[in-house]
Amino acid sequence: MTQLIHDSYRYRELIWALAIKELKIRYKRSVLGFMWALLNPAFMMLVLTLVFSTIMRFNIPHYAIFLLSVLLPWTFFSQSLSYAVESIVTNGDLIKKVAIPKMVFPMAAVVSNIINLLLSLIPLALLVPLLRHPFYWTWFYLPVPLLALAIFTLGMTFFFAAANVYYRDVSHILQVVLSAWFYLTPIIYPLDAIPARYQWLLKLNPIIYVINGFRLSVYYGQLPKAPSILASFACAFISLFIGFSIFRKYQNNFVFYV
């Protein structure tokens, strides 16, 4: 873990440059460019709000805010994994030619999507007064769950990026896993919508603890309790420890498989 912190600081400029490059490629030849970081969550919110508050009838006040408060961090998580899983393979030519630390590529994917997440919070902040939902002071707490989410996501990206080097099916399997994971996480529905006898199964889902602070802060105007905060960072650091340990163990052999 000390090596990760040291290398992250040492190569911070390279990580930042790769993150900006990824964002530029993502929006290249797009008329609206970075505006899509604002428009995508807005369009997604409109569709899901229409479906789940009108058609399927989740009777939740200000459902758009209820939804976006955790949909945005989930989108950051899923997009980070989707981009990072291919990050070593797609940079294979560079890895073969230049002595470059492999960890910068998954980290750049996470950093670029953090920028996207921060931009996407703007339409959410505008939506709150528009729907006359209270703008709680607990918004100032958001950096805490954001930190836990970033650490958790980074650990997952290290694991999947390494696994995909050896087994290219991983990138395809990941999309299936993320789709299932989305519906097994209380994003479009509240936790109490699940029968009490099955709620313990949902509590085995680690990302629930990580994103819980977002909904509490934005929608309910509450701070998580101390055990919930500790659980979120425990899940985050366990993910990082496992993911980076596997990545570091095999990274010297990546050059033979990319």
Quick take:
This protein is mainly alpha-helical and 258 residues long. Helices cover 72% and strands 0% of the residues.
Report on the structure:
The mean pLDDT is 84. Helix 2 packs across helix 7. This protein starts with a helix and ends in an 8-residue tail after the last helix. It has one domain. It is mainly alpha-helical. It is built from twelve helices and no strands. It is globular.
> What class would the helix/strand composition place it in?
mainly alpha
* Assembly status: single chain
- The residue-averaged pLDDT reads 84
Please compute the radius of gyration using only Cα atoms. Answer: 19 Å
Task: Give helix and strand order, one letter per element, not per position.
Answer: HHHHHHHHHHHH
Low-confidence stretches: none
User: Into how many domains do the coordinates divide?
Assistant: 1
Largest sheet: none
Strand content: under 5%
Helix content: over 70%
- Which word captures the global form? globular
Number of strands: 0
User: Distance N terminus to C terminus?
Assistant: 25 Å
Number of helices: 12
Defining traits:
258 residues, mainly alpha, 12 helices, globular
SSE layout and pairing:
Layout: H1 2-10, H2 12-26, H3 36-55, H4 63-84, H5 87-90, H6 92-97, H7 104-130, H8 143-166, H9 169-183, H10 199-202, H11 206-220, H12 226-250
